[in-house]
Design brief:
The complex is a heterodimer.
Chain A lengths: L5 H7 L1 H49 L1 H6 L3 E2 L6 E2 L2 H32 L2 H16 L2 H20 L7 H25 L3 H9 L4 H12 L1 H17 L2 H6 L16 H9 L7 H33 L1
Antiparallel strand pairs in A: 1-2
Chain B lengths: L7 H36 L5 H5 L12 H32 L3 H16 L2 H15 L6 H25 L3 H9 L4 H12 L1 H17 L2 H4 L12 H6 L5 H11 L3 H30 L1
Classes of the chains: A mainly alpha, B mainly alpha.
Family (chain A): Belongs to the binding-protein-dependent transport system permease family. CysTW subfamily.
Keywords (chain A): Cell membrane, Membrane, Phosphate transport, Transmembrane, Transmembrane helix, Transport
Organism (chain A): Lawsonibacter faecis
Chain lengths: ~300, ~280
C-alpha cells in the first residue's frame, strides 16, 4: 500500500486538502469568468448565423438581382413582387439627408464645447446633449408625427407631410448627440502644443481651431460621422411614425419606407413560412451587411486615431 | 500700425465662424428645451391618477397604463438580474484573468459589434429564436432575453472602465497577503469598482426604458394585469414605449401617447441625474 509514504500522508493532512480545494475553486472561477467573456462572442455568432440562415431562402427563391435591384415591392399582391431597391435607396438618401442637416450642427457644437465654451457653459450643454441622447426614439417619433409632419404639409402644400424629408429631420436630431460627443472627445485630444504654436505664429483663436485642431482631430471626427450613419440606418420606430410607410422610390416629398421600417411594418401580419415573411428576413440580412460594413469602417477609423 | 491690423477677409472669417459656433450650440440647447417643454405641455395635463393606476377596459371606457408600467419594471429587473453577472464576469475576465492578447481582442471586437447592431435586428432574432424556436410566443421572458443580448456591451464596458481604475497596488497587497486570485477579485477588486458597476446599471435602465423596436416583436404589446410572476413572464406585455407607439399610431389616442411621453421624459431626466451624480462621486 502506498498510504504510508510521506507524500500520501501529507495529502491527507487538512492543510493540504484545503489548498487542493482552493486550487479547484481558483480553476473553477477562472473557467467561469472565461465563459462569461465568451458569451458576447457567442451572441455575435448566433445573430450572424441566424440572420444568414433565415435570410438566404427568400433571396434564392426571388433571385439576388431581382431582390436587390427590383424597383417594385408588392408583397401582398396576387403576383407578388419583392424588389427592395426602394428601401435601400430610401435608407441611403434618408441617412445622407440626416447627415446633411445633423453633421454641421453637431460638428460646430462640438468645436464650441471643446474649445470655446466656458467650463460651466460647457457642462450645461453637455447635460443637454446627454438628455437628447436619452430621449426614447418613440418620443422623437411622436413629436415628429404631431408637430413636424403637419408643419411640412402646410409649408410645402402637400396632401400629407409624412415624407422622406420629415424622416431626415427626425434622424438628424437623433444622431446629433453621438456626433457631438465623439467629435468633442477627438477635439479635446489634440495636443495643446499644436494650438499654442499656431497662436504664437499670429493666427487668431478661430483660425487655430479650424485650421489646426480640426485637421488634427479629423479621423476622430470621421468616426463620429460614421457612428452617426450607423445610428441613422438602424433607426426604426421613430421613422416608422413620420415617413408615411409607403414603398415608393425615394423622393424628398413622398411617403417612403426604409429598410428598417420595411421589416417592422409587415412583420406583424406576414404569415409563418410565407415568401413574404422570408423576404422580410432577407431585408434584415441586407441591413445587417450594411451595419457590419459601417462597423468595420468605424473600427479602422478609431484604430487609426489610436496609432497616431 | 497698419501692419498689425488683420485683413478684412480674416476678420470676416473669424466673425462668421464664431457666430456659427455660438448659433449651433444654442440650437442644440434650444432643441432640447423646446422638446421637453412641448412634451410636458401636451403630456402632463393628461397624466392622471386613473391613467397610472388602472388597466385599459373597453367596457368601462378607460385607458390605464398600470400594466405597461409593471411590464417595464419586469423587463428592467429581469434583464439586469441576468445581464449583471454575465457582463461583470466578462469584464473581470478581460481585465483580471485573460492572458492571451488575441482572446481579449476577439471578445472586445464582439462587444463592439453588438453595440453597433440596430435594435430591430435584435428584435427579429429574438422573435425567431425565443418566440418561435423555443415556442414561447410573445412574452416578457423573450423580451428579457433579447434585452440581455443588447445590454451586455454596456455593462461590460462600464465595468471594465472602473476595473481599470483600481490601483495595481491593491491587487498586489491582496496577493502579497496570500490571497488567491478569486479571493482578491471578490474582496478587493469588485468592491473598489462597485460605483462603475452601478453606473452601468443606470445606463442600462435608461436603454431598457427607451427601447421599443426590439420589444415590439418579442415582448408584444398586451396591456393586461396578471396575478402572479409566472403569468407576468410568460405572457405578452407591452412596455411603456410600445404602449406609446400603439396608442398614438394604431389607435389614434395622441393624448395618451403624450402622457406616456411625459412620464418617459421624467424617467429619462431622473436616470440622467443619477448617472451624473454617480459619475461625480466616482471621480472623487
Amino acid at each position: 500500500m502506498t498510504t504510508n509514504t510521506p507524500q500520501a500522508a501529507q495529502a491527507n493532512s487538512p492543510l493540504v486538502k484545503k489548498r487542493g480545494l482552493r486550487e479547484l475553486l481558483e480553476r473553477g472561477m477562472n473557467v467561469l469568468f472565461f465563459l462569461c467573456g465568451l458569451v458576447a462572442v457567442a451572441f455575435v455568432l448566433f445573430i450572424t448565423v441566424y440572420l444568414i440562415i433565415s435570410g438566404l431562402p427568400a433571396i434564392q427563391e426571388i433571385g439576388l438581382k431581382d431582390f436587390l435591384f427590383g424597383t417594385k415591392w408588392a408583397s401582398t399582391a396576387k403576383e407578388p413582387e419583392f424588389g427592395i431597391l426602394p428601401f435601400i435607396l430610401t435608407s441611403v438618401y434618408g441617412t445622407a439627408g440626416a447627415m446633411f442637416f445633423g453633421v454641421p450642427i453637431g460638428f460646430l457644437t462640438a468645436v464650441f464645447l471643446a474649445k470655446l465654451a466656458h467650463p460651466r457653459v460647457a457642462a450645461v450643454i453637455r447635460t443637454a446633449v446627454d438628455l437628447l441622447a436619452g430621449i426614447p426614439s418613440v418620443v422623437y417619433g411622436l413629436i415628429g408625427m404631431t408637430v413636424l409632419v403637419p408643419a411640412i404639409r402646410v409649408a410645402f402644400g402637400l396632401s400629407s407631410g409624412a415624407t422622406l424629408f420629415a424622416a431626415m429631420i427626425v434622424l438628424a436630431v437623433m444622431i446629433l448627440p453621438s456626433i457631438i460627443s465623439v467629435s468633442e472627445t477627438a477635439l479635446k485630444a489634440v495636443p495643446k502644443e499644436y494650438e499654442e504654436a499656431s497662436l504664437a505664429l499670429g493666427a487668431t483663436e478661430i483660425e487655430t481651431y479650424f485650421r489646426v485642431s480640426v485637421p488634427a482631430a479629423s479621423s476622430g471626427i470621421a468616426a463620429a460621422v460614421v457612428l452617426g450613419i450607423g445610428r441613422a440606418i438602424g433607426e426604426a420606430m421613430a421613422i416608422m411614425m413620420v415617413a408615411g410607410n409607403v414603398p415608393n422610390m425615394p423622393s424628398l416629398f413622398k411617403s417612403v419606407r426604409f429598410l428598417t421600417t420595411a421589416i417592422a411594418s409587415e412583420m406583424s401580419y406576414a404569415s409563418y413560412g410565407s415568401l413574404q415573411r422570408n423576404a422580410l428576413f432577407s431585408i434584415a440580412l441586407v441591413l445587417f451587411l450594411f451595419i457590419m460594413l459601417i462597423n468595420v469602417l468605424l473600427n479602422t477609423l478609431l484604430k487609426r486615431k489610436k496609432n497616431k | 500700425m497698419q501692419m498689425e491690423r488683420r485683413s478684412a477677409r480674416r476678420v470676416l472669417y473669424d466673425r462668421v465662424l464664431r457666430g456659427l459656433l455660438y448659433f449651433s450650440a444654442f440650437l442644440t440647447c434650444a432643441l432640447l428645451v423646446v422638446l421637453i417643454g412641448y412634451i410636458f405641455y401636451r403630456g402632463l395635463p393628461n397624466v392622471t391618477w386613473e391613467l397610472l393606476s388602472t388597466e385599459p377596459s373597453v367596457l368601462r371606457d378607460v385607458i390605464g397604463i398600470l400594466p405597461n408600467i409593471i411590464n417595464t419594471l419586469a423587463l428592467i429587473f429581469g434583464t439586469l438580474l441576468i445581464v449583471l453577472p454575465l457582463g461583470v464576469g466578462a469584464a473581470i475576465y478581460l481585465n483580471e484573468y485573460a492572458r492571451s492578447r488575441r482572446m481579449v481582442e476577439i471578445i472586445e471586437f464582439a462587444t463592439e459589434t453588438l453595440t453597433g447592431i440596430p435594435s430591430i435586428l435584435f428584435g427579429l432574432v429574438g422573435m425567431l429564436f425565443f418566440c418561435q424556436v423555443l415556442g414561447w410566443g410573445s412574452s416578457i421572458r423573450a423580451g428579457i432575453l433579447t434585452l440581455v443580448i443588447m445590454i451586455l456591451p454596456t455593462i461590460v464596458r462600464t465595468t471594465q472602465e472602473s476595473l481599470k481604475t483600481v490601483p495595481a497596488s491593491y491587487r498586489e497587497a491582496a496577493l502579497g497577503l496570500g490571497s488567491g486570485k478569486w479571493r482578491m477579485v471578490r474582496t478587493v477588486v469588485i468592491p473598489s469598482s462597485i460605483d462603475g458597476i452601478v453606473t452601468g446599471c443606470i445606463l442600462s435602465i435608461g436603454r431598457i426604458v427607451g427601447e421599443s423596436a426590439a420589444l415590439l416583436f418579442t415582448a408584444g404589446s398586451a396591456s393586461i394585469l396578471v396575478g402572479n410572476l409566472s403569468d407576468l413572464l410568460g405572457n405578452s406585455g407591452g412596455s411603456l414605449t410600445v404602449a406609446l407607439y400603439m396608442y398614438s399610431m394604431e389607435r389614434g389616442k395622441i393624448e395618451v401617447g403624450f402622457a406616456i411621453a411625459a412620464i418617459l421624459m421624467v424617467l429619462t431626466l431622473l436616470i440622467n441625474l443619477a448617472a451624473k451624480w454617480l459619475g461625480k462621486k466616482l471621480k472623487k
